[in-house]
Amino acid sequence: MSDQFNSREARRKANSKSSPSPKKGKKRKKGGLFKKTLFTLLILFVLGVVGGAVTFAVMVSDAPSLDENKLKTPYSSTIYDKNGKEIAEYGSEKRTYVSIDEIPDVVKEAFIATEDARFYEHHGIDPVRIGGALVANFTDGFGAEGGSTITQQVVKNSLLSHQKTLKRKVQEVWLSIQLERNYSKDEILEMYLNRIYFSPRAYGIGKAAEEFFGVTDLSKLTVEQAATLAGMPQSPTAYNPVKNPDKAEKRRNIVLSLMKKQGFISDSEYNKAKKVAVKDEGVVSQKEYEKTNSNKYSAFIEEVMKEIEEKSDVNPGTDGLKIYTTLDTKAQDKLDELMNGDTVGFTEGMQGGVTLLDTKTGEVSAIGAGRNQPVGGFNYATQTEAQPGSTIKPILDYGPVIENKKWSTYEQIDDSAYTYSNGKPIRDWDRKYLGSISMRYALAQSRNIPALKAFQAVGKDTAVDFANGLGLGLTKDNVSEAYSIGGFGGDDGVSPLKMAGAYSAFGNNGTYNAPHFVKSIEFNDGTKLDLTPKSKSAMSDYTAFMITDMLKTAVKTGTGQLAQVPGVEVAGKTGTTNFDENEVQRYNIASGGARDSWFVGYTPQYTAAVWTGMGENEAGKKSLSAEEQKVAKRIFAQLIADVDDGSGSFEKPDSVVEATVEKGSNPAKLAGPNTPSDKKLTEYFVKGTAPSTVSKTYEKEEKEETEKLSGLNVKYDKDNQSLTLSWNYDGDATFAVKQSVDGGSYSEIQNSSAKEAVISGVQPGSVYKFEVTAVSDDGKSTASTSYEVPKAEDDEDKEDQQQTDDENKDDEKTQDDTQTDDSQTDDSQTDKDKTDDSTNDQDKKQDNTNTNPPDNNNQDQPNNNNNNNNNSNNQDTSDGDTNSDTNDSSGSDTNKNKTETQTNLSSTTEKTN
């Protein structure tokens, strides 16, 4: 047993000694782990290859076949209006098929150098091309080369949908390889050159050569012409040599440089071609290009094609699409009638551009491309780049300041002499100043100085950011303070399309929808692509509502009254731009002549922007007369009246509160219980900023009634032929006594603290009128009376007669020596109090809008009155907006020149607070 134990112990020790050390054991495990990892990665790689191959096979299993009809015969697209009704077929009749043998080498080389330099070397796809495209875009300019081969483009445009998915890309690669196996390079190039989209009226190289150069024999195309055509497919509209020759020339020169790089042309050929301006290379004239088209919606359809080109990678002329647009044919027909008819006041040479869109969605319902414009001509609705005049004020001035500073519609702004930051004076058309006025009144009457001050208060950067959020696309470095009143400079300008888009956000609770012409497109395989832009919040709902409410005032009582539509809630703004002094002299511009006249307005349903100006005309006329400046407002009113049923309203959001304030208070104070009705204004404030202090301006009225001058008494002394005038007054005051004899003018006979005046040498039978005014620190109090001196025969009956204002009034009403109190006046009322922002309370309740003085004159003509400056007409210097004001009479001194019709004692109290 012991031996056994010993032997076992020995064996354990022996085994222990022979076991490897932990260190050595770890090393062996590490080596095994590496092998296992390597083996695992190898397995994963194999599985990945197999899996990728299986996935690839699955993805291409349902790829379309190489249908020669689809490859060589393009399909036209069908266009539908907003209700799904077909309005046009697009593409089928606008191509001329040419074989590869008819296409000269210079054309082939121009397209190959631009689109696929290794076309004759690759087998359908070109990894080198993809990398080279990235480099070329940096060295030769963006868009110098594309990543897809010509073969891939043929497959993509002929056989596949345009959904950007991995499956579609895999099928594109597969089919490109198959196409190369089944067709020659020349056959593929022929397919490509006959499918390219150049313009709505030109598909394929054959039709394009005829469209832009009048060339039907392609062998006659020059190097410059071939390069111009080869540069167009990347952006057919932008590089159209007729419409955009400068951009087309820059693009052509890039193509020429690529041709030189590939060895297709020599240095001398390159330099010679580059020196030729596009306009000198045989491009057809604008007049020849603007051909007649049978489709009356052609201008709208061109914008549809342009939008599809910009938003998607499809070819409407070849891909057999169903294109669903936003066109409202009823609205378009009405707009065409207004633009080309004689109902709105168009004169010879005038032009106009109009965009009508849905306020809530941004869908363009109709466009007025111009008056009697040919198809393919300049589109005044979308291509105009005009100065906006005062239509910019809600966008660049008042909108930003409400959004960021939370100004109320009552915010008081000083309309007084002012300059830009550079010291240059800023003025309005009337060269007058209205003093402290509300923001509502300033916008409605299109005053310039308050607009600049609002712009300065919020700051240029913030204002520009706000405007760009509404689609204006301004560059901050270009923007000066003159932009605040519409004085755009340089290349900046706006179109009716941009302005309609911007204003629609005010009517849509601050949500901006980019104007668009296309809802969606459907491919021939049934798949759809939604092209509707995403909505974005451009401002707070309080900003949108308060701007809208002020623009309603502009239409009701301001500069836009001619744009009113019965039964429809309309908000809007006028805008007019003028000529500078040099232009006035150079072109002999008549007084009041304008360069541009705008009206931009909206309802809960529709938004419309209307621009009018002078187009090319034989008479060389360049300015709009005062009457012609009304056309924009008339177009708006008649168009909206036809399409808008008046439903819907602009609802006040919870972020806005209403408050009745006392006019003239600054800062704003709530109207008090004694505030006169004509001194009350109902205005809007951002929630949390409304005034809480009640005005005490009119609190003294009741207290001071007891302090008025009273007891005015006349006593006749027959013996001395004199009158003694006496009165009562509580407190210290100076008394000015005036006298009038037999209806003559008043003259002051005494000014002292005495409460009695003696008039000597009076004439029997004469009528004496007296006016006594007490002047104290608390104000003025006036009493008046008259007295007829008895004639000689009546001396005994009337001797020592004296009367007071408190005696026998009922019995003596018919006697000439009876006296009564006159009506009270208030010296504290000034002209400006009565003109600035005055509104009728009853009207305010009916309109639910806060208006400034109602305008009883033609809104397009200045109101020629001679009131105080604060009663002046209001018109914008920058835009020439004419507007009128009310004739308010001052409340002061109303009784001083009044002919007395009563002889009983009268008293009037005047208070100055």
Summarize this structure briefly.
With 913 residues, the protein is of the alpha+beta class. Among the domains are: 2-59; 72-311, Biosynthetic peptidoglycan transglycosylase-like (Penicillin binding protein transpeptidase fold, Orthogonal Bundle), CATH 1.10.3810; 330-386 and 554-643, DD-peptidase/beta-lactamase superfamily (Beta-lactamase); 708-827 and 900-910, Sandwich (Immunoglobulin-like), CATH 2.60.40. The protein has a five-stranded mixed beta sheet, covered by helices on one side. It has a five-stranded antiparallel beta sheet with strand order 7-6-18-17-16, sandwiched between helices. A five-stranded antiparallel beta sheet has the order 24-23-26-27-29, with no helix packed on it.
Task: Please explain how this structure is put together.
The structure is a single chain. Strand 21 (710-717) and strand 22 (722-728) form a beta hairpin. The chain has a five-stranded mixed β-sheet with strand order 2-1-5-13-14, covered by helices on one side. The chain has a five-stranded antiparallel β-sheet with strand order 7-6-18-17-16, sandwiched between helices. The radius of gyration is 43 Å and the shape is elongated. With 913 residues, the protein is α+β, with helices and mostly antiparallel strands. Mean pLDDT is 81; it is low at 1-5, 21-27, 701-706 and 794-913. Among the domains are: 2-59; 72-311, Penicillin binding protein transpeptidase fold (Orthogonal Bundle), CATH 1.10.3810.10; 330-386 and 554-643, Beta-lactamase (3-Layer(aba) Sandwich); 708-827 and 900-910, Immunoglobulin-like (Sandwich), CATH 2.60.40.
